[in-house]
Amino acid sequence: MNHHWFSKVKKPVIVHCTFLIIHYPMARLSVNINKIATIRNARGGNNPNLVKVALDCERFGAQGITVHPRPDERHIRYQDVLDLNEVVTTEFNIEGNPDERFIELVKRVKPAQVTLVPDSPDAITSNAGWDTIRHADHLRYLIDTFKADGIRVSIFVDADERMVEGAKAVGTDRIELYTEPYASHYAENRESAIAPFIRAAQLATELGLGLNAGHDLSLENLRYFNEQIPGLEEVSIGHALISDALYFGLENTIQMYLRELSN
Questions:
Q1: Residue 163, number of CB atoms within 10 A of its CB
Q2: Cα 206 to chain center, whole Å?
Q3: Residue 16: is its pLDDT beyond 60?
Q4: Which residues contact 64 (CB under 8 A, 6 or more apart)?
Q5: CATH no. for residue 139?
Q6: CA 178, 181, 182, 183 torsion: positive or negative?
Q7: What is the rounded CA–CA span in Å between residue 95 and residue 223?
Q8: 88 and 97 Cβ atoms separated by less than 8 Å
């Protein structure tokens, strides 16, 4: 047998390829537990137990807890904030209209983040962002006050580039984009609905501002929002998430929202 034919067989060529994989950090989910307090307050007593629910949210994967105490304490009570501060181990975010009592509470608690929201005392829910130009002096004073205590400050703004620029000028660490307009128009034309938020987010990134978002984000519209806003650091979700939990259970619902935020 002629064995020389083996030498004529070409050896396989091994090509080593290097693929560049870019990992964007996953936006964090902060669960707003106001609605749990609303249910508790409807009957008095302590059922459901707000502190236990917050701890369960963390155990189920939430990366933060958000509360929004209002002057009439119709859901979150000021004592709730003090109680939660003793046990929350993820990011604690207190949001609200910075009246004198709110300022005192935040300075006492010293949460990881305070989010300043310009809602009136009788508002059912937040319905607009700050005019960061008109209220520049007031915002600058508030931001300096909280930063002096080592608290990260985020201010609630509309997806308006002028308001984003104003937010940078007053010295905030982050902005939270008010996403109700996006959620309201998502079903009819999501590309049009997201467009101003993309522009606002791009500008915020260029200016060095951190980027949060919240209001009416849901399982229906969250993934697309997250995909289109790659610099998104955190979303605060309460009403939709707690409503979904009535059907799916709290643990499963939190996992569902986390999947929508996964890259």
A1: 21
A2: 20
A3: no
A4: 28, 29, 30, 31, 90, 91, 92, 93, 112, 234, 236
A5: 3.20.20.70
A6: positive
A7: 24
A8: no
Tokens of 15: 């090509």
Per-residue pLDDT reduced to its tens digit, 144-179: 999 999 999 999 999 999 999 999 999 999 999 999
The pTM of this model reads 0.88
Whole-angstrom Cα distance, residue 27 to residue 177?
14
**Tens digits of per-residue pLDDT, 192-246?**
999 999 999 999 999 999 999 999 999 999 999 999 998 999 999 999 999 999 9
Q: Distance (Å, rounded) from C-alpha 157 to C-alpha 116?
A: 9
Let me know how long the chain is. 263
φ/ψ of 252, rounded to 5, equals -65, -40
> Which structural domain, as residue segments, surrounds residue 201?
4-261
Number of domains in the chain: 1
Q: Which residues participate in catalysis according to the annotation?
A: 68, 95, 215
DSSP 8-state code for residue 30: E
Cα angle, residue 138 at apex, residues 34 and 173 outer, rounded to 5°: 65
**Is 27:226 a contact under the CB 8 Å cutoff?**
yes
Residue with tokens 């309201």: 184
Nearest CA to 115 out of 139, 95, 138 is that of 95
56: amino acid identity, one letter: D
- 159: tokens are 């997806």
Per-residue tokens: 248: 């799916």
- Cα angle vertex 64, ends 62, 67, to 5°? 120
